Predict the structure of Mannan polymerase I complex van1 subunit.
Amino acid sequence: MGILDRVNRAIGSKNKRNEFPTTNKEYTNGKIKDKKYLPKKKGSRTTKLLTTIGIIVACFCVFRLVVFLTQDNAIFDHSKINIKVPSYTTKSLEDAEYYDYDFEDIKPEIISKFDQGVQHYLISEFGDDVLTPKDNERYERELSMLLDSTVESYDLADFRGSPKGTEHRDHILVCIPLRDAEDVMPLMFKHLMNLTYPHELIDLAFLVSDCSEGDHTLHALLEYSKQLQNGTLSQVFAEMDYVKKQSKSKSASADDMHIKYMSPEYIAEVERAFKPPFHANYDKPFRSVQIFQKDFGQVIGQGFSDRHAVKVQGIRRKLMGRARNWLTANAIKPYHSWVYWRDADVELCPGSIIEDLMAKDYDIMVPNVWRPLPEFLDSEQPYDLNSWIESQEAIKLAHTLDEDDVIVEGYAEYPTWRVHLAYLRNAEGDPKEVVDLDGVGGVSILAKAKLFRSGVQFPAFTFENHAETEAFGKMAKKMGFRVGGLPHYTVWHIYEPSDDDLKQIATKEREARRE
Ligand SMILES: Nc1nc2c(ncn2[C@@H]2O[C@H](COP(=O)(O)OP(=O)(O)OP(=O)(O)O)[C@@H](O)[C@H]2O)c(=O)[nH]1
Ligand SMILES: *[C@@H]1O[C@H](CO)[C@@H](O)[C@H](O)[C@H]1NC(C)=O
Ligand SMILES: *[C@@H]1O[C@H](CO)[C@@H](O)[C@H](O)[C@H]1NC(C)=O
Ligand SMILES: [Mg+2]
């Protein structure tokens, strides 16, 4: 049966049920009854009739009100209001003017990319299609079904975010920025499926930007998303893993060379984490998937050494800030109570992370982020140093800097002596213990949606000598929100060998061969 037939059938049976299908089969089947988010009911005759009556009554009331006001008070008498419209000519600001400071060395062609070529994809119901604005009729229909964008009233007090989100049926927007991420895509999707927070309460929003030529992030993302929404993605991965294993037994790939130098316990843990059984709703489709493609002119390479040079941090981080803000602004809806930011390059993470971060009832909450290392480099390392507690030394240091300078945490150039969340970790510590933070890192941030509604954002400019996620934490704190981290709750970032590490591994391989 084609999608059109299915949609038609769903619409037909809906008239009987007085319910409209949303993106999930579960909604259609009527298994999930969501108290807070009921998709707009369309086209039912009674609804139409009621709406029409409502509009007539409303028009009449407005008319009476206007008559009342003009007669008795006359404050709305337009002839008495004398507004002088100043004559001025609009000056059009080029993007280059706004971002003069950071982009001095970047070519105008790159900057002019900013407002071109935004693409928006919707994965259709059951994932059997990808819709773009070109398929206008169905695109419009499914988009309005998804966004429910015509006049609706929401009491935002119902969407403040509850520490018991699952019980309260809180909707959450999961945002994932992506660049040259083709290789980590299966990893990322496995983590999404592993989330135990009810999938039907999760809207996924991806932003793909500035990928290199020959990279297929967008294409892969579309294909996997279709399977995800059809409930068939884990079968696809099982198939892929089987084929990979068959070919690997013949020749060990150079990419995996480092694995035999990693700690066997960690490798065993990774193997266990990706093997079934998974949680019961692993294959359940999400409420929706939206994919945005928009370039922001990121020119700094995405290689490990490229993106970690201290000089490029300020520019890179500000561009990421713009990308994050753009994504939240385009994806957030009134019914979202939470926004969860997640990087694609995470290797191990408890499936219950959303519930666990929520439970603390902070406005922003982050876990600890470490990464594994080869055993010859001590096996593991605190990784995300962007989550920290402000220090007197750093405040003094900030006073010596230019207003526009960005302090990058974890570099010798900036001795801040801050307490880093990463270093507070004790492997045996209580995963529920919380510390208050000032700056936060971006690998995994849970924030209440009301923060974004109140104007907290990821500064794409220097805010208190910080940018992006660290400035996000600082700004939230300054606006009176609570920012915290869990020092003993650990998420493991993937290990990407640096050029130096690869040299060491190559040397060891050569030695081993000589023996
Ligand atoms: N849309 C977009 N996504 C990006 C860009 N740069 C990185 N990303 C994505 O953002 C996430 C984090 O990127 P990383 O390169 O690991 O950057 P990071 O986490 O700040 O830094 P690391 O400490 O190097 O891991 C990943 O999901 C990337 O695919 C960008 O310019 N645009
Ligand atoms: C969706 O899943 C069904 C099985 O559940 C399968 O028959 C169908 O081909 C899948 N559709 C797509 C687009 O992969
Ligand atoms: C999936 O979630 C389970 C349960 O929290 C966890 O043990 C496992 O490590 C997770 N998988 C990955 C790949 O992180
Ligand atoms: Mg990373």
